[in-house]
Amino acid sequence: MTTKLFGEPVRRREDPRLLTGQGRYLDDLGEGAFEAAFVRSPHAHARIRDIDVSAAIDVDGLVAIYTWEDLPPLLAEPLPLLIPHPALTHGRTATPLARDVVRHVGEPVVMVVARDRYLAEDVCALITVDYELLKPVVGVEEAAQSAHLVHADVPGNVGAHLVQEVRSAAGLGAREAIEAAPHTLAFRLDIERSASMPLEGRGVCARWDADDRSLRVYTSTQTSTSVRMAIAAKLGLPLPKVEVIAPDVGGGFGVKIVHPWPEEVLVPWAAILLGHEVKWTEDRREHFVSSAHERAQTQFVRVGFDDAGRVLGLDVTILHDHGAYTPYGIIVPIITSTQLPGPYKLGAYRVEFSSVYTNTVQVTPYRGAGRPQAVFCMERTMDRIAEHLGADRTAVREANFIQPDEFPYDQGLIFQDGRPLIYDSGDYPGSLRMLKELIGWDSFDRTKELAAAEGRRIGIGVGCYVEGTGVGPYEGGHVQVTSDGRVHVSTGLTSQGQGHETAFAQIAASELGVPLERVSVVTGDTRRFGYAVGTFASRAAVMSGNAIALACRKVREKALRIAAEALEADPGDLEIVDGEVRVVGSPGVAVPLATVAVLSNPLRYAFDAEAGRATQFAGTSSFDRPPVAEGEEPGLEGRDYYSPIRSTFASGMHAAIVETDPLTAEIRILRYAVVHDCGNLINPMIVEGQIHGGVAQGVGGALYERMAYDEHGQLLNASFMDFLMPYATEVPFVETAHLQTPSPLNPLGIKGAGEAGVIPVSAVIASAVEDAEGIRISRMPISPSELFDLRRAAP
Amino acid sequence: MKPPPFDYHAPGSVAEALETLAEAGEHGKVLAGGQSLIPMLNMRLAAPGHIVDVNRLAELATVSVESDGVRVGALARHAQVERAEQVAAAQPLLRQALRLVAHPVIRNRGTVVGSLVHADPAAELPAVLILLGGSVRLARPGATRDVPAAGFFTGPLESALRPGELAVSALFPTLPPRSGTAFHEVSRRHGDYAVAGVAALVRLDDDLRVVTAGVACVSAGPVPVLVDVTEACGHRPAASADWASAARAVRDRIEPETDVHASADYRRHLTGTLAERALRDAARAASDE
């Protein structure tokens, strides 16, 4: 079989295992472990007066009850604020168990450990917490009015405030440019909350080895290496005595990059204290109220433009709902602010955000991470400009595009990684041309007329985005060829369904010239690789993909060097094909990679036939140099890291045709088209799968999902019965086309693809519903009931 | 999301089940399909001391067409009733409604009688029973009683079933000639509980004039709401009946509530729209008879 696998639609190797129930998820582990459950706050804002456990302590099977007062000093502190920022002047995080004040429904107050989860929940029900109720703050407007405070020491409920401004070429600020523009518009936009909502919630299982004084922790995380460091720090353990492993993880979508979660330090702490394995598996209700949400923003937009629709100045003020705490800093509003310009050259741009606290679940990145809000703002603005000028919506976008010969293009902003926001490559006009052809944009007017003649309402919408992917600082790869000819690849970042076992194996197989079957991939296991950042921000393929390629190149170089000696040839005359190093043009003169692996290690006990065979190549070693020469290492392995100068920018454009029912106001997506550019494709099938999944989540965010908080801060729809994630029946067939503008920044020329599909969907659906109805859409998601209300309110 | 402790009983006969239930009294709960009870247990919204599992009682897993209607046993699954051709022939509204109940995997497990006893005002089957004027047969040791649909549903998730009783079957009456039925609903996602839903029944005379027309609405009040629209649509030929006026009558009559999925106003509007569609379809079906 061919070993040139890079770019091939190889079937995912992990799927047979995962689809036939052979996956090992967190709850599959820890047979016989004690199980934890938590008493969580039923109030959005309250002071704890007393915790009474007297009714609970006699329950048979109860092992331990812990409150904040039981925690050792390091654990009793607030959890880390992972990503500080100068603009985050009032960052706040929670303690693992609430100390005195609870600030959202679901905040953990008491930890119970029992023989099993049933008993642990029975005990939780018998614990009485006496609360003094405080006024809750719900929604950004109430937070901004600051009649009540979420944190007594955070004035105005403002955690962070940041202004970025890019002046026009003529030196005008955005507000001046808008004043001077021939046309101006001002409007407000709103996006509601949604959440990552992985099918597998969070979960932790910890084993303490008292003899070895070592701790092994399994956790359903997007970053095992960082959880490991956090646990070592919080529990005061030597780092080498802590192992953290991400088993099969049933989805992350951002929520599992936050670390350490309270349970990730409490469960290991209890396991050490009790000398017994302890585990905690989050249930769905807990996930709704005690993990994280995202998306909610209110945006105030002012734009000035010329007769061609070119934006001369854009001024956006954002109220960002941060929930009760800021463990992940202000990454989300920073991404919104900086990705908002998208594929466009804005004359001048000013963006200001206030990140406000509310008595609701904390906000951390969810797939797209602030970009869906950014794109909603920019694309609604483009549609408003088109409407104002009576111009075609795509023509206005074309008038503003950065052109293909303008790369690298500096947007003049500082991105989430603290580095300049410079687009590396892209072809936005080409992408829009492909999209218009795919969806039939230019003939849609006729289609719409024909539908109208039948009494049907249909509309078309479009949305464009640019996505910074592959943020640093680094990832590493380790590649080892063993004497059986197998290739073992490991990287520290984790997998939550991305198909790394396939894509990374394709890279290694292509680089090393070995069949795919011989390559195995391990991710997220600190026993195999200790340094890593994690799987988020559409970075795994770019970061670990390139690191693995670089590590493979080291291995290949060494293999050729050793084989050259054995074959008495020049390394430059050798190639590796189907797992054999051979002389180019003389395929008969060859040595298997397995043999090269044996030769790479001077210790050569003849454990197996391969080692025995290698002795024929051993030759006479010189007695003048040591068996392992200076600068060499035994073994055929290599390790390397990829650390990019800055992010690489993928892009895409979506279009949809929707139908709205004139009577019932139901909204149906008839067609959905995607043109996507993530540079070179490692595996087009996996990229398409990522896009399909992303669009599905985007459809959820556009038409179905919301976190329905009432004025008391109670989440009214905390179950899959009432929080409506779309089924297969609600997700349209996704038509895709790929454009490939390789990234000049990394050896493989690739860009990230993980988040892409979700980013523009709300903008696209809003555009299409607006076109169908002739009613302005300023708030997403939209339900039939809301469309009905908009119709009645329409003039 | 684990249930509180309970004693589990798996009786081998109906008589034994009745004895067990009688003994458990108000602490007993019957487990049939479990599609509502199990989630309620796991969320600790229900905490019965005794669960009486009737899944071994094959004698209750029956569906039969009798002279006065379709009798559905307590253990007959939605899917079993939905697929039975003789049921569809005798009372087409059952299949029309069952196709709208959740998803196939839920219909494979959930039971028709269980849905009636659960008495969710958003569910389809209570509306069907009310519209057809059916009844539920309730048993306790040595006694059975038939409760007409009109008196069976007493509130949201509340029925005339008394502690210690087992609902052993339900009767869905068949219809006289020149009758037609239809069920229309709108749900947020495929298979969800309906935002609004309407079952319609229209009877015509030999000249194809409307004799009676009525609807039963789901998600329109604390119990399924039965509305007689015979007057509103006029004693006219089906083809020219005033269905729009009937829809107005329905909108006036119902009392839907606002929740996270839809406003009361939207539900009211939608119910009228669906009533008009369902009545037209029912009249067409009656004309084709």
UniProtKB/TrEMBL annotation, chain A:
SMART domains, per the entry: Ald_Xan_dh_C
* Domain Aldehyde oxidase/xanthine dehydrogenase a/b hammerhead as annotated: residue spans: 20-135
> What Pfam families is this protein classified in?
Ald_Xan_dh_C, MoCoBD_1, MoCoBD_2
Its keywords, alphabetically, are:
Molybdenum, Oxidoreductase
* InterPro entries noted in UniProt: Ald_Oxase/Xan_DH_a/b, Ald_Oxase/Xan_DH_a/b_sf, Ald_Oxase/xanthine_DH-like, AldOxase/xan_DH_MoCoBD1, AldOxase/xan_DH_MoCoBD2, AldOxase/xan_DH_Mopterin-bd_sf
Gene3D superfamilies, A to Z: Aldehyde oxidase/xanthine dehydrogenase, a/b hammerhead, Aldehyde oxidase/xanthine dehydrogenase, molybdopterin binding domain
| GO MF entry, a single one | oxidoreductase activity
From the Swiss-Prot or TrEMBL record, give the protein name.
Dehydrogenase
Q: Which organism is it from?
A: Streptosporangium carneum
UniProtKB/TrEMBL annotation, chain B:
Q: Which domain of life is it from?
A: Bacteria
Question: What SUPFAM superfamilies does its record include?
Answer: CO dehydrogenase flavoprotein C-terminal domain-like (SSF55447), FAD-binding/transporter-associated domain-like (SSF56176)
Key words of the record: FAD, Flavoprotein, Oxidoreductase
Signal peptide (UniProt feature, chain positions):
none
A Pfam family recorded for this sequence: FAD_binding_5
An annotated Gene Ontology molecular function: oxidoreductase activity
Q: Does the keyword Ubl conjugation apply?
A: no
Domain FAD-binding PCMH-type, residue spans: 1-177
Specify whether Oxidoreductase is a keyword of the entry: yes
SMART domains for this protein: CO_deh_flav_C
UniProt-recorded name of the protein: Carbon monoxide dehydrogenase
Q: Name the source organism.
A: Streptosporangium carneum
